[in-house]
Predict the structure.
Amino acid sequence: MNGTMAPILLVEDNPDDELLTLRALKKANVLNDVIVAHDGQEALDYLLGPEDNRVPHIVLLDLKLPKVDGLEVLTRIRASNRTRLLPVIILTSSKEESDLLAGYSKGANSYIRKPVDFDQFVVAVQTLGLYWLLLNEDPPRMEP
Amino acid sequence: MGTARPAQGRVTSNADDVSALSENERVLSALFEHSNVGMSITSPDKGWIRVNRSLERMLGYTEDELRSRTWTELTHPDDVDADNAQFARMLSGEIDGYGLDQRFIRKDGSVLNTLLSVTCLRTPGGDIEFTIAHLADTEERVKAERERDQLLHSQRERIKELRTMHGVAEVISNADDVPAVAALVVELLPDGMQYPEITGARISLEGATATTPLFAETPWMLSAGCPGIDESCQIQVCYTEPRPDADEGPFLAEERTLVEWVATALTEGVRRIRGAQAVLEQEVEFRGTFEQAAVGIAHVSTEGRFLRVNGRLAAMLGYTPEELMALDFQTITHPDDLGADLELVDKVLSGEIEHYSLEKRYLRKDGSILWINLTVGLVREDSTPRFFVSVIEDISERKSTQQAFEEKTEALEQFFNVTLDLLCVADASGHFLQLNAAWEAQLGYTRDELMAGRFFDFIHPDDIEATAGAVATLVGQQPVMSFTNRYRCRDGSYRWLDWRSAPVGELIYAVARDVTEEREAQEQLRQTTAYLESLISYANAPIIVWGPDGKVTRFNHAFERLTNMKASRVIGKDLSGLFPEETREASLQQIARAAAGESWESVEIPILRTDGTTRLALWNSANIYAADGETLMAVIAQGQDITARKAAEDALRELTRSLEDHIKLRTRALSASNAELEAFAYSVSHDLRAPLRSIDGFSRALEEDFGDKLDPQALDYLNRLRAASQRMAALIDDLLQLSRLTRNEMNSQKIDISALSEEILDQLAQSEPARHVSVEIAPGLHATGDPTLVTVALQNLLGNAWKFTQNVEDPRISVSGNITAEGQIEISVTDNGAGFDMAYVDKLFRPFQRLHRATEYPGTGIGLANVQRVAHRHGGRVWAVGEPGKGSTFSMSLPS
């Protein structure tokens, strides 16, 4: 693991999905550390918590989460000065129009539906990593 | 040609001058021989010595033949004496020559008229040596003279005849009787005679005799009878002296003809006079009638001159008949009346009318005016107008009555004529004496036309009897008020006139008013009233009328049925008896408000029946006001029995209310179920896929991480696990879509079907770049609908076409459209792919129904169900036609 690389924050409550996502990231040769939050609250605690917490490079956010759901997490991320420019990629099962609309409306940078076919999922994660972690220029860091 | 007289001494005997003589001789000889005049030298005993050629030609003898004859022998016996006498005078030396018209007898015996000139040549002793005779042919001259004499004679005859004829004609025209004719003719006769020797004439006629003073019975008389007059009539002409040739000469024959002619003329004249006398006798009889007539009678020439007038007419006019005869009718006609009269005269003359009557004015001799009634007829002879017969009736008395009246009322004339009422003065005989202008306006006649006849002529035949009765009342000096009859107008229609009449002496003064409109209005009103009466009585709706006092005045049959009360029991009673006690007060208040002028429409008022039950009626009422528009006269109300309707309405209202409750309940349940469905769909879309992902993902992990420890059958099972999970995911997606198509709100807008089809097919082509499909899209196809739904439907249709043509050699897909009469567009997608059996066409659009095996053509069997759902949500439909192995056409109708 390259300690200098900013981590990826994966917000995922389903352990199967967590495992499969990590596997896909690995297969896609994404080398960044992955911090996993198992519900919305945990994600927020990490992002808006102690300042020595490492600011993630990107957030992979599931929508349907216990306690605080994904959209609420997104709203709070965008509401905080520290995190308002943080790239947030919604990674979820649903492609309900209402979810898409709400996600983008609240400031998601991307919306990716998790395919059932694992091979396709790996391709998706690969593409995502290539784009967000390598090609995309990060927004300037926000100091509190 | 003149008489040649040889100059004395010119022809001399001079022996000394022989040569000169012979020269002279030659000239004379040539002259002698070639002269056109007959010349001769004769002896003193008239023997021819020498003659020239002209004389030979004239007398027809040669010179030799003449030498043996004397001229006396050749002279016409009648002329010998005269010639001898003159010759003897010449011989005696009394004359040297002479000239004579003398006839000679030619050799052929014919007579030659000549002018004979004779001169002589004397010896110095004075004896005649020889004579020279010239004979100039005067045949032409004598002939002309005879013709001239004959012409003169005939002219004289003609003049004489004319004089006589003229004389006789004049005599006859001037004489009144036969003796006078005779007397005049006899005077005339001698003048007409050729010979002055006629001294007298006598005519015996009808026993009378006319004789000229010098008439005497002599043997030399001519006489002629006039058998056309009578046997005794005779004309005699006497001559004073006898003429030797009186019996046979042509002149006597002329005289006789003349006398006979006079006799004929006389006969004619006498006949004429006798005829005139006979006519005169007839006329005397006629004249008696003519004169005795009580009316004036006149014969008037076509120019207007009086040919004959009777004494009555003359007396009327103050002239003697003779004075009148010298005038024409134009002169005595009042100038103002002349025009009308002349116009009628012209009409009679032209044959347009046969006769005419006219009231007009004559001017009497003293200048006063005479009113007459003139009747004129025309006497024609062989269609040529001869004269007019005029009968003149003195109507001055009637006129003066009228005129006196007119004068008296002159001051009232203005009133008379300005009033709109019809005013008239009439006499008991039925004549109008005066009418005002209103008559002309009302009836269309001129007043003259109305006054020409009797007023009865204008009255409706059905009203004549009543009118005569009214006139009788008036004649009885009783006024007649409010009498009505009908007068005929010029156009044939009738007007009702309402009369007020009063007798004044023998006259009737009357005022009439045209009440036709009122009568018609009354009649119409009566009919309308009758109509309304029956309308009210037999109307199906209950109708009631009451007065301001609340008492019922009218109660129709329908109201009787409503209340089971007889009208007779209600009319005159108080209105309040009709209402049930519990609502009476409220109803009466409503009615009071209506009477106060408030509108009262569709008010429900219960009515009491005799059996104690109540009927509910819906009422309209109207107030009826007097002419002042304020005084309430009556109220009319019309009701409608709505008892049954009301009950039905109540039931319906109750039903509606329960239904509404039911619907509210259902809606609540439905929205709850809808919300549940939402939540379910949401949960499905999030949670149902996660396990599938795990199955697939860990199957894959198993394969990857432990693939070397698994046998091929285990690996196959893992693949099946993955395939099933992926199919399950597709099913879930389609199901979600189906539910979304049902749930989502529609957002209708115009959609370019052609462009959308192209876009979808492009995406399909990109998904499988290796495939080559011919695509044909009709341009300009548009539909109106929700873009999301329509896109889903088209994606399904085109996706199917794409999918089912994957095994065909030359795949073709086409999109076409057709606008229906209902304004929908039918979009059809046709392919030449796998097709289907029409036996299963019903199954096509049901969810999860498949006609092909999934291994052959992958799919969930929900696509066409989605298409159908989209079509239905747009009010359209779907259908399909196909044949296995040949292809299919799927159609969907949408609003265009």
